[in-house]
Write a structure and sequence with these properties.
Order of helices and strands: HEEEEE
Number of helices: 1
Number of strands: 5
Structural class: alpha+beta
Distance between the termini: 84 Å
Strand order of the largest sheet: 1-2-3-4-5
Amino acid sequence: MCDKSRLWKLVSPYALWFPISILAVACATTEKSKEPPKPTHYVLENADPIVATMPFPNQHPIYVKIYGGEQLLERRLAYRGWDVDHDGLIDMVEYLDDKGEVIRTSYKFNGDSDLPTPSH
Protein backbone atom coordinates (compact mmCIF):
# COMPACT_ATOMS: atom_id res chain seq x y z
CA MET A 1 0.00 0.00 0.00
CA CYS A 2 0.84 3.64 -0.46
CA ASP A 3 1.64 5.97 2.36
CA LYS A 4 -0.92 8.84 2.32
CA SER A 5 1.48 11.47 3.68
CA ARG A 6 4.01 10.69 0.95
CA LEU A 7 1.26 10.89 -1.70
CA TRP A 8 0.02 14.22 -0.27
CA LYS A 9 3.53 15.73 -0.43
CA LEU A 10 3.85 14.63 -4.04
CA VAL A 11 0.43 15.86 -5.29
CA SER A 12 -0.19 18.97 -3.16
CA PRO A 13 2.25 21.47 -4.78
CA TYR A 14 1.19 20.51 -8.31
CA ALA A 15 -2.50 20.66 -7.43
CA LEU A 16 -2.15 24.26 -6.23
CA TRP A 17 -0.22 25.51 -9.26
CA PHE A 18 -3.04 24.80 -11.68
CA PRO A 19 -5.71 27.08 -10.07
CA ILE A 20 -3.11 29.74 -9.29
CA SER A 21 -1.94 29.83 -12.91
CA ILE A 22 -5.53 30.14 -14.15
CA LEU A 23 -6.15 33.10 -11.82
CA ALA A 24 -2.88 34.76 -12.85
CA VAL A 25 -3.67 34.45 -16.55
CA ALA A 26 -7.21 35.75 -16.02
CA CYS A 27 -5.95 38.82 -14.14
CA ALA A 28 -3.26 39.56 -16.69
CA THR A 29 -5.59 39.37 -19.68
CA THR A 30 -8.27 41.65 -18.22
CA GLU A 31 -5.76 44.45 -17.69
CA LYS A 32 -4.32 44.20 -21.19
CA SER A 33 -7.67 44.09 -22.96
CA LYS A 34 -8.95 47.28 -21.33
CA GLU A 35 -8.80 50.02 -23.97
CA PRO A 36 -9.09 53.73 -23.25
CA PRO A 37 -12.50 55.20 -24.09
CA LYS A 38 -12.87 56.60 -27.58
CA PRO A 39 -14.19 60.12 -28.17
CA THR A 40 -17.94 60.14 -28.78
CA HIS A 41 -18.81 63.84 -28.83
CA TYR A 42 -17.45 67.30 -28.07
CA VAL A 43 -18.81 70.48 -26.52
CA LEU A 44 -17.59 74.04 -27.11
CA GLU A 45 -17.21 76.15 -23.97
CA ASN A 46 -16.95 79.94 -24.05
CA ALA A 47 -14.68 81.19 -21.29
CA ASP A 48 -14.87 84.67 -19.78
CA PRO A 49 -13.38 87.28 -22.11
CA ILE A 50 -9.99 88.78 -21.34
CA VAL A 51 -10.73 92.50 -21.40
CA ALA A 52 -8.09 94.86 -22.75
CA THR A 53 -8.02 98.62 -23.10
CA MET A 54 -8.07 100.33 -26.47
CA PRO A 55 -6.26 100.00 -28.89
CA PHE A 56 -5.80 96.32 -27.91
CA PRO A 57 -8.64 93.82 -28.68
CA ASN A 58 -10.58 91.79 -26.15
CA GLN A 59 -9.80 88.08 -26.30
CA HIS A 60 -12.56 85.44 -26.12
CA PRO A 61 -11.07 81.98 -25.43
CA ILE A 62 -13.18 79.06 -26.69
CA TYR A 63 -12.40 75.61 -25.31
CA VAL A 64 -13.37 72.22 -26.71
CA LYS A 65 -14.31 69.50 -24.22
CA ILE A 66 -13.98 66.00 -25.68
CA TYR A 67 -16.05 63.25 -24.08
CA GLY A 68 -15.96 59.46 -24.28
CA GLY A 69 -19.50 58.62 -23.21
CA GLU A 70 -20.00 60.56 -19.97
CA GLN A 71 -16.26 60.74 -19.16
CA LEU A 72 -14.35 63.94 -19.93
CA LEU A 73 -11.26 62.89 -21.91
CA GLU A 74 -9.73 66.26 -22.77
CA ARG A 75 -10.30 70.00 -22.43
CA ARG A 76 -8.14 72.30 -24.51
CA LEU A 77 -8.10 75.75 -26.05
CA ALA A 78 -9.32 75.27 -29.62
CA TYR A 79 -10.23 78.79 -30.77
CA ARG A 80 -9.42 82.38 -29.85
CA GLY A 81 -11.97 85.04 -30.67
CA TRP A 82 -10.95 88.68 -30.89
CA ASP A 83 -13.22 91.70 -30.41
CA VAL A 84 -11.20 94.41 -32.12
CA ASP A 85 -13.64 97.34 -31.81
CA HIS A 86 -14.95 96.46 -28.29
CA ASP A 87 -18.58 96.15 -29.40
CA GLY A 88 -19.07 92.73 -27.78
CA LEU A 89 -19.03 90.85 -31.09
CA ILE A 90 -16.20 88.58 -32.16
CA ASP A 91 -14.51 90.09 -35.23
CA MET A 92 -11.78 87.51 -35.77
CA VAL A 93 -11.41 83.81 -34.89
CA GLU A 94 -8.12 81.91 -34.75
CA TYR A 95 -8.34 78.14 -35.13
CA LEU A 96 -5.73 76.33 -32.99
CA ASP A 97 -4.23 72.85 -33.29
CA ASP A 98 -3.48 70.48 -30.39
CA LYS A 99 -0.26 72.36 -29.60
CA GLY A 100 -1.97 75.77 -29.52
CA GLU A 101 -0.51 76.95 -32.83
CA VAL A 102 -2.72 78.98 -35.19
CA ILE A 103 -3.73 76.91 -38.23
CA ARG A 104 -6.40 79.17 -39.73
CA THR A 105 -7.93 82.61 -39.20
CA SER A 106 -11.39 84.02 -40.07
CA TYR A 107 -12.22 87.73 -40.17
CA LYS A 108 -15.48 89.67 -40.25
CA PHE A 109 -15.27 93.41 -39.70
CA ASN A 110 -18.53 94.69 -41.22
CA GLY A 111 -20.22 95.29 -37.86
CA ASP A 112 -23.30 93.08 -38.24
CA SER A 113 -24.27 90.50 -35.66
CA ASP A 114 -23.24 87.49 -37.78
CA LEU A 115 -20.29 86.00 -35.98
CA PRO A 116 -17.41 84.21 -37.68
CA THR A 117 -18.29 81.14 -35.64
CA PRO A 118 -15.87 78.22 -35.53
CA SER A 119 -16.74 75.50 -38.01
CA HIS A 120 -14.66 72.79 -39.63
